[in-house]
Structure formats: C-alpha cells, structure tokens
Design a protein that fits this description.
Blueprint (H helix, E strand, L loop, with lengths): L2 H10 L2 H8 E5 L5 E3 L14 E6 L6 E8 L2
Antiparallel strand pairs: 1-2, 1-4, 3-4
C-alpha cells in the first residue's frame, strides 16, 4: 500500500479497498485487466466508466485502456 491508499483507508475504512478492487483497467488490445488498487490507485464512490491512454503491463501496447467496474 502506498501513502494515498493508507490515508484513504484510514479515513474511510476497509470499504475503500473493497470498492477500488472492483474497478478494473482493461487493455483494448489483449484484454488484460488489473484492479485500480493493485495499480496503486483509489477509486471510491464513483459510477462512471472512463478511458485512459496508457501502456498495458502485459502486452506493452500504448493505447486506450478502459476503466470499468466489475461486480
């Protein structure tokens, strides 16, 4: 856990980690996904899907990565 994750966990409790793990970054090229929490981020009380440009850690493709909630 990094400082930001520890801080939000301290303020809001364990539900921050639980909800952040539900949000996944998905690669448009290979379909690889990883949770926001595993990537070092926090996503709490959010409801919109977003797309980001970034590098996939699995295939190395630079392009659109979707941020979606999986329940």
């Amino acid at each position: 856990m990094n400082r930001m994750q520890r801080f939000f966990g301290w303020v809001f409790g364990p539900r921050v980690e639980r909800e952040s793990r539900e949000w996944k970054y998905e690669c448009g090229q290979c379909g690889h996904s990883e949770s926001v929490w595993e990537a070092g981020g926090v996503r709490f009380k959010a409801n919109a899907e977003k797309s980001y440009v970034g590098r996939c850690p699995a295939c190395g493709h630079v392009g659109k990565r979707w941020l979606r909630r999986s329940r």
